[in-house]
Design goal:
single chain, about 100 residues, mainly beta, about 10% helix
């Protein structure tokens, strides 16, 4: 998510003026999200059990009024990482039907 969206979520309070995002070390009860230390993978917190990663490259001009931003949710195990370019090859061993 965009850093401005994360900053906005950090300012949210419930009806009893308790923060919705609190440090995970305090053993949160009924918190929507928890804050964690920034790790090497740039996880800044968790929300609903999902790790939060901020990136300022996410567009913030979506929607009809151009004031909506995107929050991307993905399953990282489905991502493929390729370290080389695409290579074409010829396979002469084709299966022939008789």
């Amino acid at each position: 998510m965009h850093p401005r969206r994360w900053a906005h979520l950090l300012t949210l309070l419930d009806t009893n003026t308790r923060p919705l995002f609190i440090p995970s070390e305090n053993g949160p009860n009924n918190a929507a999200g928890t804050l964690t230390n920034v790790a090497a993978e740039a996880v800044v917190g968790r929300c609903c059990g999902l790790p939060i990663v901020i990136d300022s490259n996410i567009p913030t001009t979506g929607g009809g009024a151009s004031n909506e931003d995107v929050i991307v949710v993905l399953r990282s195990s489905d991502l493929l990482f390729f370290e080389s370019g695409v290579r074409a090859r010829v396979l002469p061993e084709t299966k022939r039907k008789h």
